[in-house]
Amino acid sequence: MERRDFLKSSVFASGVVLIPSFLKGMQFIDTEKLSGYRNVIIIQLSGGNDGLSTIVPHQDDIYLKNRPNIGLRDNLFKLSDELYLNSHCRDLKELYDNGEMTIINSVGYPNPNRSHFRSTDIWHTGSASDQFLKNGWLGSYLDANCESSYQGIQFDSELSLILKGKNLNGISVTDPQQLFNTTREPFFKNIAEQLDSEMLTEDNQGYLYKTLVDTYSSADYIYEHFKTYEANSEFPNNKFGMSLKGISQLISSGLKTRVYYTTLGGFDTHVNQLNAHNGLMKTYSEGIGALVKELKKSDRFKDTLILTFSEFGRRVKENGSKGTDHGAANNLFVIGGGLKKPGLYNGKPNLENLDNNGDIRYEIDFRDIYATVLDNWLQADSRLVLGKEFEKLSFI
Amino acid sequence: MALSDLHIQHLYWRAGFGITRNDLQSIRKKSVDKHVDHLFNQSEYKPLKYNLSQFEVDRKELSKEERKALRKEANQTMIKLNLHWMEHMVATEGVLREKMALFFHDHFAVRLKNPVVCLELLNIIRKHSIGNFGDMLLEISQSPAMIIFLNNQQNKKSHPNENFAREVMELFTLGRDNGYTENDIKEAARAFTGWTIDKQFKFRFNPRVHDTGGKTILGRSGNFKGEDVIQILLEQKQTARYLCEKLLEFLLGVPAEKEDIERCADLLFQNNYDLSVLLRSIFTSDTFYDERYVGAKIKSPTDLLVGLNRQVPIDYKDPKVILQIQRRLNQVLFFPPNVAGWNRGQGWIDSSTLLFRMKLPSLVLNFGVIEWQPDETLSEEMIARLNNQQERLQKRTEKKIQAYPNWERCEKNFAGSSENLDTFLLQTNPVAIDIQSDDDLKTRIIKIMSTPEYQLC
Predict the structure, then answer these.
(1) Which of A211, A215, A216, A223 to mutate to test the interface with B (most CBs of B within 10 A)?
(2) What are the backbone angles phi and psi of residue B374, rounded to the nearest 5°?
(3) A7 with B453: Cβ contact below 8 A
(4) Quick one: closest CA in A to B343, which residue?
């Protein structure tokens, strides 16, 4: 039968709700059985975090010389003889001391781009700096390894490139209940429930329905889990804190999601950065502290890896407005219960051998880190996701 | 050959932003050639105008605060330009020119916060969008917007900057990895040295930083200048092929067949890149009306918004709401994500954008509500409660959206008829629309526009 005829004839066929076949295997899982179901939380410090004010090379003369006004000197937490942690990161210090945090310095890529948009795209897609890809690395991971949108969740009102795959996109959520309510608008409900997945064709109409039904069922699945678990650790009362609280509830409730993505914005500190940056450090550190506490309570921390990156670091030399301009390589944090090499993964950034712009040169390609997470943590095939082979690191 | 209603609608969706029922009735009996003539005749070029005199100042004479204020003003003005162009698309009869301009606005993607050069670039694109591609390419390459965006001011004999040379081959002419080498890029970059802009933001050739030495580009050798490189690129058949592949996908809604691309590339190449010859040929071909292409295209956010507003005129009391909508749908005019343009086709659609697209008609036409029929099992008390809830929701939404549809003009557009609205508003058969026999025109329109099928054209 012609497809269109078939579609037409099914309109208002009966009151029977056809459940798309890919939803049939989706059942609630006991949290205990979930042990070993690994997931990753990716956090982007948007705007370009000043890594040198986060992990501070306090003893390096070059650092102090280049940062006469905004260089950090006091009350820092000592990590090693060379590197110190920002004084507003008490929770991070605790994780570091517990062997639950790895700091990787000088992460970046060849020919660094200093535009927020472009460099974010590069980090999101895992592309080279002269390559324009349409799919994010987490999206490509979903394509290769997952069946449903809810396996990649962004805590935001829009879905970023990082979670867009060729065949499967992640889903963006700010409030699981609101998402559920929107999809249950009677008019949409009627449309979604008229559909059988067997009818989903390869063309654009099929793609729209696939997205709709997937959203519809993911919204249901996410909300049904979300309401079964209440996080009771104290999360900072800001957007970032609420995102992490949401994520902790979803993970703890037994949601079978592999990757989460969220952002903390405000890092574009060109002017008077000292107080602004310290405030951001506090927000970040306290948020992570609460998240880890909650995940430990539900015994899910051992299966969770938290990766924090920023689209670029900032220039070593401070600018004329007591701030810093866009830079290149930066530090990246891995937090989790199953780290193989906690602490400082590599040496401090080399401030003597900067590039032509006066920025830190990269020593570790960020895609090596992606490949490591994909292969060693998610047990996926990084070559399939990233399009080629990258070196594996030994932090997990 | 006379076209069926479905095919006229198809033509008007792909060459414009849809057609009203009123217009459809008046042009129904024309032959396909006449329809296409009509589209071209309506699309005469007039520059899009916007008063930007406040930016005609020497920045050097401004204080730090004044410069900061001017930057802020520039950001605001980019938004105004965006809305101004969008309003023009809604109001104009010259839809073909704007539709093609939208294609090239994406092809020559530039993202800057300088309204003067951005408006100038848009007008270059609009001037040539149904004219000659070669002329457009050269004029754009020398436009201040492109020179600033792809750093050609920094491209000097002593320090070549390859950004423009790379993108002109990779994105504007040959396509990525299509017959050029890294060495061609390096050599072309040398030829583009000296292309810069002056203080008044006008193109200027600066011979002092131009590399006059010999270059070899795509197998040809000479003391080439920038203009020569553009000419060499146009002499490559691959340029016509790459452009046709992209343009056909834009017009057909899905990737075209190889032989159709080849046929169009021949035509464009033989006619010295005259886009009007190519477009006429495509719009009058059988292939264009093949059933696999009708209703197969996912509307871009601009198609969706402009198309909806051309059917139902809407007064946005707060124009910023349009900007918010564009943001939620991932297409803010003048702000493509990067030099490669927007993520088209299925790339427009994800869970958030699809839900928002389906919610959009009720948001801008009925303060967020799709009218519903009470179920017989509901008590009167319950119905009253639900109605009350709905009213409160509408009041809240009205405050946020402030969009007021003009239903009287809309009725005229629909020639007073609500017959077969679905086959008129949709280009493909819907899976399910719950339309009740006593739904009025307004409710019917909102329901049909709130479907997944309305995302297609």
Answers:
(1) A211
(2) -65, 135
(3) no
(4) A134
pLDDT tens digits along B286-298: 999 999 999 999 9
Yes or no: say if A162 and A138 are a contact pair by the CB < 8 Å rule: yes
Q: How far apart are CA B403 and CA B397, in angstroms?
A: 10
Chain B CB contacts of A194 below 8 Å: 431-432
> Which residue in chain B is spatially nearest to A6 when comparing CA positions?
B431
pLDDT at A21: 40
Rounded to the nearest 10°, the torsion over CA A249, A254, A258, A263 is: 0
pLDDT of residue A190: 83
Q: Identify the burial level of A352 via C-beta atoms within 10 angstroms of its C-beta, where 0-12 means exposed, 13-18 middle and 19 or more buried.
A: exposed
Cβ–Cβ pairs < 8 A, chains A and B: 118
Strand A152-155, strand A330-336: pairing: unpaired
CB B448: neighbour CB atoms within 10 A? Answer: 20
Residue B381, Cβ neighbours under 10 Å: how many? 8
pLDDT at A57: 97
* DSSP state, residue A354: -
Which residues does chain A have within 8 Å of residue B327's beta carbon, measured at their own beta carbons?
Answer: 158
Q: Which of A8, A204, A214 to mutate to test the interface with B (most CBs of B within 10 A)?
A: A204
Q: Tell me the backbone φ, ψ of residue B24, rounded to 5 degrees.
A: -60, -45
d(CA A36, CA A29): 13
pTM recorded for the entire structure: 0.86
Please list every residue in chain A whose beta carbon sits closer than 8 Å to the beta carbon of residue B166: 130
Question: What's the rounded Cα separation, in Å, for the pair A116 and B328?
Answer: 19
CB-based contact (8 Å) between A132 and chain B?
A: yes
pLDDT at A197: 61
Q: Do the chains contact at A203 and B296, CB–CB below 8 Å? A: yes
Is B428–A205 a contact, with Cβ atoms under 8 angstroms apart?
A: yes
pLDDT digits (tens, 9 = 90+) for A217-264: 899 999 999 999 999 999 999 999 999 999 999 999 999 999 999 999
Q: Nearest residue on chain B to A215, judged by CA atoms?
A: B351
Q: Report the residue from B352, B358, B433 with minimal CB separation from A172.
A: B352
- Give all domains of chain A, ordered by start, each with its CATH number: 29-386 (3.40.720)
Q: What is the pLDDT of residue A198?
A: 63
The B-side interface with A (CB below 8 A) comprises 111, 166, 253-254, 295-298, 327-328, 330, 337-340, 343, 345-347, 349-355, 358-359, 370, 372, 428-434, 447, 450-453, 455-456
Determine the distance in angstroms separating the CA of B38 from the nearest CA of chain A, rounded to an integer: 30
Give residue-wise pLDDT tens across range B231-261. Answer: 999 999 999 999 999 999 999 999 999 999 9
CA dist list (Å): B241 to B103, B181, B230, B256, B259: 16, 18, 16, 12, 11
Q: What is the mean pLDDT of chain B?
A: 94
Which of A208, A261, A311, A321 to mutate against chain B (most B CBs within 10 Å)?
A208
| Reported ipTM | 0.93
B163 Cα to chain A: minimum distance (Å): 9
